[in-house]
Amino acid sequence: MTLMLCTFLLPLIGGAVLPLLHLEDRKRRSIYVQVVTTLTSLMALGLLLRRPEGTLTLFHMTDELSLALRLDGAGSVFMGLIAFLWPLATLYAFEYMAHEEHETSFFAFYTMTYGVTLCITMAANLFSLYVFYECLTLITLPLVTHKMDAKSALAGRRYLVYSISGAALAFIGLVFIMTFGTSTAFQYGGVLTAEAIAGREQLLRLVFLLAFIGFGTKAAMFPMHAWLPLASVAPTPVTALLHAVAVVNTGAFACIRLIYYSFGTELLFGTWAQAVAILLAAFTIVYGSAMAVREQHFKRRLAFSTVSNLSYILLGAALMTPAGLVGSLTHLCFHGLMKITLFYCAGAVLVKTGKEYVQDLRGYYKVMPFTMGVYTLAALALVGVPPMVGFISKWNLLTASVTSGLTPGYIGAAALIVSAVLTAVYLLYVVVTAAFSPLAEGSMALAGERRDPSWLMKGPLLVLCAAIVLLGLFSTPLVHYFEAVAGGLL
Q: Which pLDDT belongs to residue 305?
């Protein structure tokens, strides 16, 4: 239990005291932040290898409400993802943020966000998850508004309004679980009993749907998605954090907890509430992909891609079958790897050449061959080209949708296929124009130059590329772990 406590306290305290240390020298500050982040990930690895069995209660709000931590199989999946990605993201941020102002405050909040996200992975009950979910909104708001200009202020307001609105809907679910559940603690299969909810089934299904939309706000599910593309004005390490790791996956993870560990599938499977949840996710999948095809701003195109792909995870969860949960967990992990790689390529282009729009990337294979090569690999993976990770997760989701036996499940499968085609269009268009078109008129001054980033950025990108390929080739042990989680064994 001591290790569990230290794992989230180290980044919280380490980030909070960073401004007090007055580390104005960039090298010393970078070493400090990287050491804190790496030690946190090593402690998280220790928890994953020897997962504690009990529950750590931080304090009691009332007799029924407690802020408590417990690491189970589902939480281990999310923890493993962020523990792997956060040190790489921090290393990448050092070179990127050298061109930005207020680096100390940026890395303080960036490090504290790691601690809050770890708390979400270890939340032992719905109340704790809700509290940490709200804390994540507050701790990431300064990152969204980091540039302190009109665009970032607008993005911050939109992010705050949508997040608070979503939390209000999720709170309704918390109240009803407290009232009709045996407890708020997460229990595979749910905490509602037939005796307690007799005669109130339709009401609870409505409440579930409201809470699903509420938690789905951070996963950018339609109609609560509009905050995400605007957030792309933040520095790329932040947008990658929002769009691939912490915030959006927190929304998807909370929906998984809501369905499988609070309300339970017995109440929801085959009902109108499940149908609406699946159809909302399916619509968002196609809508996000279509908007990405239209969008010409490079980072906003990837943001709309995230809108689409996070609903892949929600679709799998809403199928409410073990196969659907396996597909959901698989895409939660693998999308994080692919999307953070794509955002980091966009960030490298922006910081090294100042280009922000897709049409400005013509001929960029000659200018940034390493960056565009990495982008190509990650793009092919997200399209679903075997044997990379995107194929594995999309295959699991497609087969789960088809085998669910539900009409909305078939609609979800159709949405996945349409989205795959659109994904190929909006991602590979960049590859084709960068490889086979001449340099854009505004980039002619770069002819004959090489503008790839230094190894502070290249190193994380190489590790991510290796993970995308190797986890695709050798995904079986990981998928078997997801199957154990989906079967309630972990």
A: 94
